């Protein structure tokens, strides 16, 4: 099982990625071993995730999310929090 996710960095920037182990990946981001983008922006918090059946599907969804405007991503995050009680 793969996940596409959005994290919010300490400076309020959003980062989108994929992983097959969400808990481990968030831990990597917060320890400074994640993506270069997040290394100087820790701590990060998970604000959105969605399960995908395989890596290829997750990559396609990641690309789709990365094309969204920031305001659209924030709307998606608000909807996710409301529906998940996250």
How would you characterize this protein structure?
The structure is a single chain. The protein is an alpha+beta fold and 86 residues long. It has a single domain (2-84), classed as GIY-YIG endonuclease (3-Layer(aba) Sandwich), CATH 3.40.1440. It is built from four helices and three strands; from the N terminus they run ββααβαα. It has helices at residues 22-31, 36-39, 55-66, 70-84, and strands spanning 2-8, 14-19, 45-52. A three-stranded antiparallel β-sheet has the order 2-1-3, sandwiched between helices. The relative contact order is 0.23.
**What string, H for helix and E for strand, traces the elements in order?**
EEHHEHH
The CATH homologous superfamily: GIY-YIG endonuclease
Strand content: 15-25%
Q: For the report, how would you describe the main beta sheet?
A: 3 strands, antiparallel
Tell me the number of strands.
Answer: 3
Mean pLDDT rating:
94
Which residues sit in consecutive blocks of at least 5 with pLDDT less than 50? none
CATH architecture assignment name? 3-Layer(aba) Sandwich
Structural class: alpha+beta
Percent helix, as a range, is: 40-55%
* Count of separate structural domains: 1
CATH class: Alpha Beta
CATH topology: GIY-YIG endonuclease
Output the strand order for the largest sheet. 2-1-3
Shape label: globular
Number of helices: 4
Radius of gyration: 12 Å
Distance between the termini: 20 Å
What attributes characterize this protein structure?
48% helix, GIY-YIG endonuclease, alpha+beta, 4 helices, 24% strand, 86 residues
């Amino acid at each position: 099982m793969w996940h596409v996710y959005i994290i919010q960095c300490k400076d309020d920037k959003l980062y989108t990625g994929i992983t097959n182990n969400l808990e481990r990946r968030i831990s990597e981001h917060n320890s400074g071993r994640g993506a270069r983008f997040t290394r100087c922006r820790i701590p990060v918090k998970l604000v959105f995730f969605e399960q995908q059946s395989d890596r290829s599907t997750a990559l396609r969804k990641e690309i789709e999310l990365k094309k969204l405007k920031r305001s659209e991503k924030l709307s998606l995050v608000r909807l996710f929090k409301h529906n998940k009680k996250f």
